[in-house]
Design a protein that fits this description.
By secondary structure, the chain is mainly alpha-helical. Helices cover 66% and strands 3% of the residues. It is elongated and about 105 Å long.
């Protein structure tokens, strides 16, 4: 079974990010962009070599550092005759021809009777055979090699690797065990600092690779963190102490770190490898995988291109391209590179696994099952193909289908932590935390060094301390010490909007929705993505809605209108459930924004105007990935706004039934390119053209055209001057004119609200009118709501006062003055239940403040200079 490096985000079932999440903030790496863009060294100026190097030495150095064509050109000028020269030339040819994809020529060069008995030639020939999928021939060559060279570290490692490739895990385990068995006992000798044969960087790297696979296959890593350090130390010693030029040890270390979900460290190792050989296909492939895990499709494409500049027909490029397209929800396109692989190697297990995944995403269950039967025929104990399918289904949140495939992979390869991580993290997304803890705890025992597993177990330990409040349709979970006010409001609000939202989409979730409120933003981010940073406050993965506490403090994102966020996220839960998680990401976002029932945000207005007038709105096929991997700082906000607009346009033009029909088609795994023409009667191009015309009509009313801008500037200067001159009546007239000219600008409403509250103009009705506009849009500042509630109270509108004061509490539930205001209004309105709650919450806030003050007092004083 081929070794697959697990992907944290894939294992998190978040290849499509959670609704509301911001994958661009998940992880920050510094990929070696210059290598992805660099041309082959052959076209670069000649490198400078020491004078004592002959042409054969130069060719060897050129091949080692990625100048494959250049090395062959240098070699062509030579006529080696001595046995050692013939071997050196064969190894150079084998290295360069194989890297360029000319495997058959490489095998021919390495099969020359004049060099075929050399042990290094034999190992390279076996690798070339294995790369072509000729595993039987490769195994025969390796066994013959080991009969002649029984102490060959490379021979034993490669034997294990090819056995895994052929699906013979037991034989692979035995091959790797040679390194720990008597009389070698290399692991024991290394740990006891025995002299041993540890003075060759290549051999030490073979040994480290073999021991890593042995430890994985035999579960030797279980509860043995020291073994991790020991094996990692082999790679470090190989490149840091034995031979500082031996870059393959950096590749091995990079693979090692990736297998333990430590991408930052893997990136550093691969960077070092590419410094020495910018055309190493394996390093470029691994960097491509890292880019995919951060949704950087363009950089992944560049890695693919870089591989193909070396070898136009590289299997590594085809499989990476297929993963890239699958991640972009383009299974039909992904099938093309997979077919290229299988045309060359019909028994390629990874290719077959990807082809099964391509069909699984399209709900082609029979084809998927048929392909997996082919895999089982080739390798009856295979787990990797089922793992491929499980990953892709997890990415689409197809929880039960994905879980079944993960379980089968685990049953076949119980030592494989990637499959256990995948299932455990899948359970966290589906809200099955107890199951998640059991699976992840076992995975942690197998691999205590895995970062993703460790992060999630810590999080689940924290969640075990959470309190719960259960209502008819929701279970709210929260930290009772940090956030005792949460249950006072959340459940009641959620139940109040449940029926309305379900009716809007004619769907009711079959199970209760979990609302998990995390006391810190880091904990929320780990819950959502497995990484301690993500730039949002709420996210839905279907049944589970995660939220960071709307509390002031350096460990949160500060206060925000949690009720509006929950309304948004619960809309995701409904639309994801209605479509079995197959809705387009942009559409679930657009529908969620529309269900917020709030006016357009002020900051969206100039952004949308500019995008419409400069033709910068996203085409439909690019819209989802503007959320996932924005290229400009404004792209994600623009994607939200445009998605909302498209949903509004469809509803206004074709009716709400069109929205429901689209959701039905998405549930049936129909592609966007099929759904829109069927529902709207317009081709995609026609729809886009008509939508853009509608957008033009919208912005035409906003007062941002050149003529209106001039009027706005002049009127604003006039109005500001009148205010400074305290001519408030005339200033109000000017600002009213501005509000008509530019109706989607907050400034005139702010000025008018203030003017109508002055002693000179006192007009509560008009002040209320403008404060209402401001309050409906504001998400983080409750001052408008508090001022509005007081005006309602003073004018006897107690119902409106209570509703608005509650909105102020929703925006900042830790604002004591908002609770005091609501308590006062509840008392005036004879709302005994509301008054009792506010008194209780005020007492909670006082206790929290006292505890915080005590903590501050107990802190040691800062040291002086």
């Amino acid at each position: 079974m081929p070794k697959i490096v697990p992907s944290l985000l894939i294992l998190l079932a978040l290849l499509a990010p959670p609704a509301g999440a911001d994958p661009k903030d998940i992880i920050h790496l510094t990929p070696p962009q210059r290598w992805l863009d660099e041309v082959l060294p052959e076209s670069l100026p000649d490198q400078h070599y020491p004078a004592y190097l002959n042409d054969l030495d130069k060719a060897k150095a050129q091949a080692f550092h990625g100048g494959y064509k250049l090395s062959l050109m240098t070699l062509a000028r030579l006529h080696p005759r001595k046995p050692e020269e013939l071997v050196a030339a064969a190894l150079i040819k084998g290295t360069s021809l194989a890297a360029l994809g000319r495997q058959q020529e490489a095998i021919a060069a390495l099969s020359d009777p004049a060099v075929a008995s050399d042990p290094h030639v034999q190992l390279q020939r076996a690798q070339a055979l294995a790369a072509l999928g000729l595993t039987d021939d490769a195994l025969a060559a390796l066994r013959e090699h080991l009969r002649a060279h029984p102490d060959s570290m490379g021979g034993h490692y490669l034997l294990g690797m090819v056995c895994e490739q052929a699906g013979d895990v037991a034989a692979a385990r035995d091959a790797y065990a040679w390194f720990v068995a008597a009389p070698q006992k290399y692991l024991e000798k290394w740990e006891t600092h025995d002299k041993g044969p540890f003075d060759n960087a290549e051999d030490v790297t073979w040994m480290g690779r073999a021991l890593d696979r042995w430890a994985a296959l035999t579960e030797a890593y279980r509860d043995n963190a020291n073994l991790h350090r020991t094996i990692l130390g082999m790679f470090v010693k190989a490149y840091d102490a034995i031979d500082r030029e031996y870059w393959p040890a950096h590749v091995a270390a990079g693979e090692y770190f990736m297998s333990h979900d430590q991408r930052k460290e893997a990136s550093e190792e691969l960077t070092a490898a590419l410094e020495a050989n910018p055309n190493d296909i394996r390093s470029l492939q691994l960097f491509g995988q890292i880019h995919l895990e951060t949704f950087n499709f363009d950089a992944a494409d560049q890695a693919i291109d870089a591989i193909r500049r070396v070898n136009p027909h590289a299997t590594e490029a085809d499989t990476l391209e297929a993963r890239n397209l699958l991640l972009q929800r383009r299974p039909l396109d992904a099938e093309t590179p997979v077919r290229h692989v299988l045309e060359r190697q019909p028994k390629h297990i990874e290719g077959l696994g990807l082809l099964a995944a391509v069909n699984a995403l399209q709900l082609n269950e029979e084809k998927t099952a048929d392909i997996l039967r082919q895999v089982d025929h080739l390798d009856p104990h295979n787990a990797s193909a089922y793992f491929e399918v499980a990953q892709q289904l997890a990415a689409m949140r197809q929880y039960p289908r994905s879980a079944d495939k993960y379980k089968l992979a685990i049953a076949r390869a119980p030592w494989w932590t990637a499959a256990q991580n995948g299932l455990g993290l899948l359970y966290t997304q589906s809200g099955d935390e107890d199951l998640a803890y059991a699976v992840l705890n076992d995975a942690h025992k197998l691999d205590p060094f895995n970062l993703a597993t460790t992060n999630y177990l810590r999080l689940l330990d924290m969640m075990n301390t959470f309190a719960k409040k259960e209502s008819a349709h929701f279970v709210v979970m929260y930290d009772p010490k940090a956030d005792p006010v949460i249950p006072e409001y959340f459940s009641e609000y959620l139940e109040s909007v449940h029926a309305e939202l379900c009716a809007a989409f004619q769907f009711t979730p079959a199970v209760k929705t979990y609302i998990e409120v995390f006391p810190t933003h880091a904990a929320f981010s780990v819950r959502t993505t497995g990484s301690p940073w993500i730039g949002t406050v709420g996210a839905s993965t279907g049944r589970v809605i995660a939220l960071v506490a709307p509390r002031p403090g350096e460990n949160t994102m500060g206060p925000f209108n949690w009720s509006q966020v929950l309304r948004h996220e619960y809309t995701h839960t409904i639309t994801l459930g209605e479509t079995d998680n197959r809705i387009q990401h942009w559409m679930t976002e657009g529908l969620a924004v529309s269900q917020e029932r709030a006016p357009m945000r002020w900051e969206w207005v100039p952004m949308l105007y500019h995008a419409v007038k400069h033709h910068e709105l996203f085409p439909l096929d690019k819209l989802t990935w503007s959320f996932v991997r924005p290229k400009r700082p404004i792209d994600r906000q623009l994607a939200y706004a445009e998605s909302y607009w498209i949903c509004k346009y469809v509803e206004d033009t074709y009716g709400h039934g069109a929205i429901l029909k689209m959701l039905e088609d998405f549930r049936n795994a129909q592609r966007q390119e099929e759904v829109f023409p069927r529902v709207t009667g317009r081709s995609m191009d026609q729809f886009q053209t008509e939508f853009l015309a509608w957008c033009d009509q919208q912005v035409a009313k906003w007062g941002y055209d050149e003529e209106s801008n001039k009027k706005y500037t002049a009127l604003r200067e006039k109005a500001e001057g009148l205010m400074k001159a305290r001519q408030y009546a005339d200033a109000a007239k000017a600002w009213e004119e501005i509000a008509v000219l530019r109706p989607v600008d907050s400034l005139p409403h702010q000025r008018l609200a203030g003017l109508y509250l002055t002693r000179e103009l006192r007009d509560n009705a008009k002040a209320i009118e403008h404060l209402q506009v401001l309050a409906k849009v504001e998400l983080k500042d409750n001052r408008y709501d508090k001022r509005l509630a007081r005006l309602y109270r003073d004018t006897g509108r107690l119902d409106d006062a209570a509703h608005t004061a509650l909105d102020a509490v929703y925006i900042d539930p830790y604002d004591r003055s908002a609770h005091e205001l609501l308590a006062e209004i509840d008392e005036k309105a004879n709302n005994a239940r509301g008054l009792e709650r506010e008194k209780r919450v005020i007492d909670m806030l006082d206790q929290l403040k006292a505890a915080q003050d005590n903590t501050e007092k107990e802190k040691p004083p800062a040291e002086g200079n």
